[in-house]
Design goal:
about 375 residues, alpha/beta, four-stranded mixed beta sheet, 11 helices, 11 strands, about 35% helix, about 20% strand
Length: about 375
């Protein structure tokens, strides 16, 4: 198979885990490849993915080879594949817009962004870089709250002829007006989004338990999901003005599988606090209160601890291959099955069982 050529905007912890994973699984075969939902999609294996362009705004990454930049501060995720070959792809200066929150300047250098001194790239610069690199798909790994920056890069993507995989909660694929779907359809390009759902994280666990309550006849009365972490994502989200779409995305992911939609006062889901020493470890505190047979009350409490970025990388590897499969097939616009299965806020919500079957049908070409 030919390589799947991708561009990445935002060379943070998630990009680090993804790139490590691409190299890690090159040395594996199907029998010993733990941690993947699909070893092969449309003939493509994880090691068939190649990063050909990368953008960031941190001076410790801009101008550095991408395989070196992924280990630069403030990245703090687990290093599980340290022996990477030198990369000929250099991280280029991106466009800042709202991709950087001012409050992050107040933290120690090892924890936060250090803005590069280079001039920002223009739309023309980025489109040219995409075309010259031969990139086929753009992955968006900008910080939560980067509304304008995400729209900027999505525009660059369809103008340059790239499919778009939106890993953050800015509503592109799930835009209710359909403007983004139209742009990508007219360009003959697919979109997957929005807001990546981790392999086994807080949201997928919460959804599964909520669906279980409904299927077993237990009325869910109230619930919360509180998350803490110590990476730059959690530091960025201390600015609550950047959280509106994140809270909506995570809340709707759970609301969509309840037997009866819950009153807003009885469901609270979202990032809770930044704990520096946790680094890339994310801890979820989950509580669910319900009523069982005979109106007898019950409650469930769960604590989930996961390394945040590898938890998303296993999903991103499948999203990339699905986007390439759509390109090969000439499919354009929103890819509903991959979006429903891999994302918290797709255009239409389905149960995870439904989304799983849709996804398998998509891979087989039967959807």
């Amino acid at each position: 198979m030919s390589k799947i050529k991708i561009a990445i905007v935002g060379i943070g912890n998630c990009a680090s885990s993804l790139i490590q994973g691409i190299h890690f699984y090159q040395e594996k075969n199907e029998q010993d490849a733990i941690g993947l939902m699909h070893w092969e999609i449309g003939g493509y294996k994880p090691g068939d993915i190649e990063v050909v362009a990368a953008f960031d705004i941190d001076k410790r990454k801009v101008g550095v080879g991408v395989n070196e930049a992924i280990f630069s501060a403030p990245n703090c995720t687990t290093v599980f594949c340290s022996e990477l070959p030198a990369s000929s792809v250099t991280v280029q200066m991106g466009k800042i817009l709202d991709g950087f929150s001012d409050h992050m300047k107040d933290y120690a250098e090892k924890r936060t962004f250090v803005l590069a001194d280079e001039p920002e790239s223009t739309e023309e610069d980025i489109i040219k870089a995409f075309k010259e690199s031969g990139a086929q798909i753009l992955l968006n790994y900008l910080p939560v709250g980067s509304e304008d920056a995400t729209r900027f890069y999505a525009t660059c993507a369809y103008k340059a002829g790239l499919a778009f995989v939106n890993n953050i909660p800015v509503f592109i694929a799930s835009d209710s007006k359909g403007d983004w779907a139209r742009h990508f359809e007219e360009a003959g390009l697919p979109i997957i989004g929005d807001d990546i759902k981790a392999q086994l994280g807080a949201t997928i666990t919460h959804r599964t338990l909520t669906d279980l309550f409904a299927k077993r006849g237990v009325k869910l009365e109230r619930t919360y999901q509180l998350n803490t972490g110590g990476n730059t994502d959690f530091l960025n989200m201390l600015n609550h003005s950047r959280l509106a779409s994140k809270k909506e995305s995570k809340t709707e992911a759970v609301q969509s599988v309840t037997a009866q939609r819950m009153d807003a006062d009885n469901i609270h889901i979202g990032p809770s606090d930044y704990v520096p020493w946790q680094n890339d470890n994310k801890i979820c505190f989950l509580r669910m209160e319900g009523t069982m047979f005979g109106d007898v009350p019950m409650n469930l409490e769960l604590r989930l601890s996961v390394e945040d970025s590898p938890n998303s990388a296993g999903v991103a590897i499948d999203m990339i291959r699905c986007a390439k499969l759509a390109l090969d097939r000439g499919q354009s616009g929103i890819l509903e099955a991959p979006s429903a299965y891999f994302c918290k806020h797709p255009l239409r919500q389905f149960t995870d069982d439904e989304a799983f079957q849709m996804m398998e049908d998509f891979i087989k070409g039967e959807s």
